[in-house]
Design brief:
Elements (H helix, E strand, L loop, with lengths): L7 E8 L2 E9 L4 E6 L20 E6 L23 H15 L4 E7 H12 L4 E9 L4 H8 L7 H9 L10 H9 L4 H19 L15 H16 L8 H4 L9 E6 L8 H9 L3 E6 L8 H16 L6
Length: 320
């Protein structure tokens, strides 16, 4: 089947004045995989759909609230972020499933998407056929603290610049919440400067990933960057509104769901421990560690992802 533009697309009214952009490609009568994007706030991938056989799968993707083609955009300081939480995104995913008339689907995504997928699957396990996670996160307080404070042990100069991006009154407190406050500032210059410094720090954490995509955060421009950083800081300042270890403690709810976890050994942003802990707690999960990959991948990680998709396509993971 040719891979042109979307076969169907639209804006789904999900309430609270929000409309969620979605699109589908591939076989409308086939199995459905939903591509969940990271960030939070990065917007849907423009290439991930190509990894799936469009003769076998209906490939659905969507932009989470506030980013991409969804409206309103979080780049607008007037956009109400109180109705942009993990709970809202889970309800949006379920609304999309019902809108598409899908009973069960395969969930695929990486980084922040791991957190959202795990939360969705634990809430709606009957609607999940299987899960592929790349670069596993659970957005726990210690994970956020590592990325935005603990990592200064390895990147002291870059972290000091990150800290200096805040006014002095905010530098000794919670840096993530400090940046959240700046992204809510009515002054466009304050927001633009904060977004630039946030992305510079994110890029510092992946600068060593020469086989992946170093520099990808600062490559975001204009409203895309503003929306991304505003959503990131909003979610991470609140630890995604999840109780500490909530998703790890809830892993038993995934007992009937097969999963493949793919993680880079060199991932500084999201160290391997999180994926390892999840694999131990999830009865049907398999952990694949890619030795030369960081958070943004490598050719070997791409091969591991394609192998995982092939196994789900062939159906061997559903045999007990």
């Amino acid at each position: 089947m040719a891979m042109g533009g979307p076969r169907s697309q639209g804006l789904l009214d999900v309430g609270d004045g929000n409309q969620m952009y979605w699109e589908c490609r591939g076989n409308s009568a086939g199995r459905t995989v939903v591509l969940v994007h990271g960030g939070p706030g990065s917007g849907r991938s423009r290439t991930a759909y190509k990894a799936f056989d469009h003769n076998v799968f209906q490939v659905a993707s969507f932009d989470q609230r506030g980013c991409g083609g969804s409206v309103p955009s979080a780049a607008d300081p007037g956009t109400d972020m109180s109705v942009n939480t993990t709970k809202h995104l889970l309800a949006d995913m379920e609304a999309l499933r019902r809108h598409l008339g899908v009973q069960r689907w395969l969930l695929y995504g990486g980084s922040w998407a791991s957190t959202l997928i795990l939360a969705y699957a634990q809430r709606y396990p009957a609607h999940v056929e299987g899960i592929i996670l790349v670069g596993v996160t659970m957005t726990r307080p210690r994970e956020i603290d590592w990325l935005y404070r603990g990592l200064r042990l390895l990147l002291p100069q870059q972290w000091e610049r990150f800290r200096a991006g805040l006014p002095e009154s905010l530098r000794d407190g919670n840096l993530v919440d400090g940046y959240r406050q700046l992204m809510d500032d009515p002054d466009p210059e304050v927001r633009a400067n904060a977004a630039r410094e946030w992305c510079a720090w994110e890029d510092a954490a992946i600068a060593h990933e020469t086989q992946g995509s170093p520099g990808q955060y600062s490559a975001k421009l204009g409203e895309q960057r503003l929306a991304f950083v505003r959503i990131c800081t909003h979610y991470f300042a609140h630890h995604a509104w999840l109780r500490d270890d909530e998703l790890l403690r809830g892993a038993h709810l995934l007992a009937e769901i097969p999963g493949i976890l793919i993680h880079g050994r060199l991932d500084l942003s999201a160290p391997l421990l999180t994926a390892w802990e999840l694999a131990r707690a999830w009865p049907r999960a398999e952990l694949i560690v890619v030795e030369d990959a960081g958070h943004t991948g490598s050719p070997a990680m791409k091969t591991a992802v394609m192998d995982a998709i092939t196994r789900f396509t062939a159906g061997d993971l559903f045999k007990r």
